[in-house]
Amino acid sequence: MERIDRKHYTNHILNILGNGEVVVLTGHRRAGKSCILECMADILRDKGNVMSLDMENPDNASVNNFEALNAWIKAHYKSGIKNYLLIDEVQEISEFERTLRWWIKQEGMDIIVTGSNAMMLSSDIASAFAGRYLQVHIYSLDYSEFLQFQQLQPSGEAFMSYLRWGGLPFLCNIPFEDTRTRTDYLGSIYDTIFVRDILNRKQIRNVPFIDNLARFVADNSGKLFSANSIAKYIKGSGMSVSSNTVDEYMETLCATFMIDRVQRYDIKGKRLFEQHEKYYFEDLGIRNYLCRDKQLWDAEKVLENAVYIYLCRQGYEVYVGILDGKEVDFVAKRGNETAYYQVSLQISSPETYEREFGNLKRIKDNYPKYVVTMDPLSTLVNDDGINVVQAADLLQSRL
């Protein structure tokens, strides 16, 4: 398989190297972290000594603790020149931070590591690194990358394929018409996340419940709910689970980077609410896989999830906006920038139009406001300075 350089990421990583901090690439499994690390190895070989350690390679199984890691680095380190240490799936090495904390202080050493779950980004590990790390979060392919990897031209059919299958890079090796193999591949990724990042690491006891919880979140992505409301819903179906257990399991699901929790933001009071969040998936294909038994494909939820992924890829902090009890799908913040987004498949009906535009009109500041839609008549709309944009056009742009 030809390796494609995702320059959005490799250029960013090059820009932040040399600051005396470990660069940590995070993201769920098979989002492309390993490929990006390989691209970085190719780029850096002309600049110095590259030491690459793939912890998914059985030959490296003995490098399983900080002492073994330290011995491995000493054996591959070259004095007098620039050294680059690249470790794939670093969480497989126990107490890895103890070794990396020392080596990152050595002159001429840069370190890049990948990890597939949030255990290494806990407050304890952050404290152990003494703040000496920078996180670069890797998402699966965005729509522009999807077109590049699949060698497609922009079209309505291509966009619907992206919304259906998502952006796991390996899928470009499986023909679109082979839906069974594509579905099986998505299932294998979910199973790997479920077994390796959830069951094995967290010692979950109620296995059926956390699996059903992931499917519940997929079916209700983009809806507000709380641990307490889920516990009540589960109780209604004959099971008894406490809200504390639900909250603990939701934290576990989010720790895999498969699902993101998005807080509500009071637009008028400029504060965050502590309860009733929304949840979105970091890959559309995995989300759709969990909802594959549904008779109807909920394109509205998938489109909203796609816009969420896009805004995150552009470096925004994303929240759900609340103003006088009305909801704005996304408040996107980046530095001093703020923008508001409503997402709707179509805006031609009076009820939908009033909901999507009316909620934005209630916001009295001068930050940009957008309605994102797939309605073919959207280009005819111009209302009170609100920008109406076709979803496919937005997802190909760079903000």
- Number of strand elements: 14
- Which oligomerization state do the chains in this entry correspond to? single chain
Helix coverage percent: 40-55%
**With helices defined by DSSP (H or I, 4 residues minimum), what is the helix count?**
15
Q: Could you spell the SSE succession in H and E letters?
A: HEHEHEHEHEHHHHHHEEEEHHEEEHEEH
- Poorly predicted runs are none
Number of domain modules: 2
Folded structure, characterized:
The protein is an alpha/beta fold and 399 residues long. 41% of the residues lie in helices and 19% in strands. The chain has 15 helices and 14 strands. It has a 7-stranded mixed sheet, sandwiched between helices. Strands 2-3-4-1-5 form a 5-stranded parallel sheet, sandwiched between helices. The longest helix has 24 residues, at 179-202. The protein is globular. The protein starts with 6 loop residues before the first helix and ends with a helix.
Summarize this structure briefly.
With 399 residues, this protein is an alpha/beta fold.
List the helices and strands and how they pair.
Blueprint: H1 7-16, E1 22-26, H2 33-44, E2 49-54, H3 66-76, E3 83-88, H4 96-103, E4 109-115, H5 123-128, E5 133-137, H6 143-150, H7 156-165, H8 179-202, H9 207-219, H10 227-236, H11 243-255, E6 259-262, E7 264-266, E8 271-272, E9 278-281, H12 284-290, H13 299-313, E10 317-323, E11 326-334, E12 337-344, H14 350-361, E13 369-373, E14 387-390, H15 391-396
Parallel strand pairs: 1-4, 1-5, 2-3, 3-4, 7-10, 12-13, 13-14
Antiparallel strand pairs: 6-9, 7-8, 10-11, 11-12
